[in-house]
Structure formats: structure tokens, C-alpha cells
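Would you be willing to look carefully at the protein I have copied below?

:::
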Amino acid sequence: MSEQKQYYTLEEIQKHNHSKSTWIILHNRIYDVTKFLEEHPGGEEVLREQAGGDATETFEDIGHSTDARNMSKSFIIGEVHPSDVPKLQKPVDTNISSVDDNSSWWTNWVIPGISAIIVALMYRLYVAQEG
């Protein structure tokens, strides 16, 4: 017998962002943490800040223990609807550069080089006047 998955849209999830109903998303699963607010070791504010949204990155950055991860499973109430999953994906940061980009070479090397030469000449002129 297969278990029927419960899916929620982002619009539905975002409505649960208050102390009477606090839902968060972790790895595309939806957790109802309303009853856990007062017990959360980091304080309820931490969960409330993430309420109604995707808290995956924050959850992983904290480095939760295995016990915390196991306990969190008891709060799962469903999953993000498949059509809304792409909306949760953050675009990958890409470093766009071009080999033919002469302005990058100009600003990164020539301007600082000329500035260094000017400073060196000014220093030599200053030392010469002192002597």
C-alpha cells in the first residue's frame, strides 16, 4: 500500500508565517514547527524569521546535529508542489568574464601600475628635496 504524498503550493505555505501556524521548507519538504517554537534551542525568533519560506540554506549553515535532523522528521506535513520547486531554486552564481575584455586588463593592471610609478617619482622628488 503506497502512502499518498501531500503537496502544498508556495502560496499556501506563505500563509503559515505567524505564531498560530508556522511552516518552513527544508529540502522541498514542509515542516509544521508551530508546536516546536517554544522548544527550539535557538529561540522561536529563528524559526519565525523563516516562516512561510525556504529555510534550507539557513538550516544547513547552522550545522544541526543528527538528533536534530531525526527529530525534525516528526514535523513533516508534506512537500512543495512539483510545479513550485523550480521557484525555490536559487540561480547559480556565475562569474562571467571574457578573454577579449580589454577594459578588465586596463583597470586591473595599467591604472595601478601608473599610480605606483607616480607615487615612486613623487617619493624620489621628496627625498631629493630633503637632501
